[in-house]
């Protein structure tokens, strides 16, 4: 972001930076952000590693086509407000905050209608502009979510992907419904927890990773299904289901799970798709038509209804902490990224208040 001149005590801060085109990241010092009148300056406490960050770190074709180095990565974070601009009215120094990573234009048709999550000119924090993998980050006040109730710092650090899970899981009513989730990554597992908390009768999640299926069992799914050995049809019989699933949440971005989901939906079933495929996916369109299925794409979070829902769900007893499996200090960023890339993890959190943590450090400390 291009901020106006900053405070007199401006200094360099540590940040995790894509310094040049190519694989890798560097922990280095960058000038501190220079917030404007409507911005909030935040001391970062914890950050979460997202799949987007992995793409940028490895510098795959997508990253090479979208990202311009140098860039400070990161969009999942929690921090403490240290200063506010003269136009800021809701946040104040000392507030604990998370941030909405989609920076919208505010003037397009959807923004003007209050549908900011549909802004056609969205800019991604940590993708198109410097992000939160740093000691300090500045955000427009309109992108700051103030935590008004106590919240675990690890959980607050992953409000961004938690929001993806909530947006997807609550796109259709799930009370008393049978819900199928394809893809037991961290967002899929959180969506399963939300659906169960919101009153779904059966919640079935599928994957091919024993590790992640076991994580899913910790949040109380009805069945965590390894589709290499058991079909979704068999799962229906096990649960005594007769007509298919009412709601589907596709989280994998893979063709086979979406096709299996369509094949196992009830007539009039509704599917929310968050998983982003890398290639075209052929589907049985005849079944979509004759079974009158609804397929809805999901991107990001509704601003800020989803954020409100997240806070209320946690206040109501929803526990997503099992999805957070690994924590590292900021100097251990290489190990953190390796853990996130391994697949044998849930969410990986980096602590920006401590350079290193013991490898056995429990979450929530």
Automatic annotation (TrEMBL):
Active site, UniProt feature: 52, 55
The keyword Cytoplasm belongs to this UniProt entry's keyword annotation: yes
Record InterPro entries: ADH-like_C, ADH-like_N, ADH_Zn_CS, ER, GroES-like_sf, L-Threonine_3-DHase, NAD(P)-bd_dom_sf, Zn_alcohol_dh
Designated gene of the protein: tdh
Name of the top EC class for this enzyme: oxidoreductase
Binding site for Zn(2+) 2: 105, 108, 111, 119
Name assigned to this protein: L-threonine 3-dehydrogenase
Function (record text): Catalyzes the NAD(+)-dependent oxidation of L-threonine to 2-amino-3-ketobutyrate.
Biological processes per GO annotation: L-threonine catabolic process to glycine
Pathway involvement of the protein, from the record: Amino-acid degradation; L-threonine degradation via oxydo-reductase pathway; glycine from L-threonine: step 1/2
Cofactor binding remark: Binds 2 Zn(2+) ions per subunit.
Listed NCBIfam families: PRK05396.1 (NF003808)
Main location: cytoplasm
Assembly with partners or alone: Homotetramer.
Gene Ontology CC annotation, any one: cytoplasm
Organism of derivation: Streptoalloteichus hindustanus
Listed PROSITE patterns: ADH_ZINC
Keyword Oxidoreductase: yes
Catalyzed chemical reaction(s): L-threonine + NAD(+) = (2S)-2-amino-3-oxobutanoate + NADH + H(+)
Family the UniProt entry places it in: Belongs to the zinc-containing alcohol dehydrogenase family.
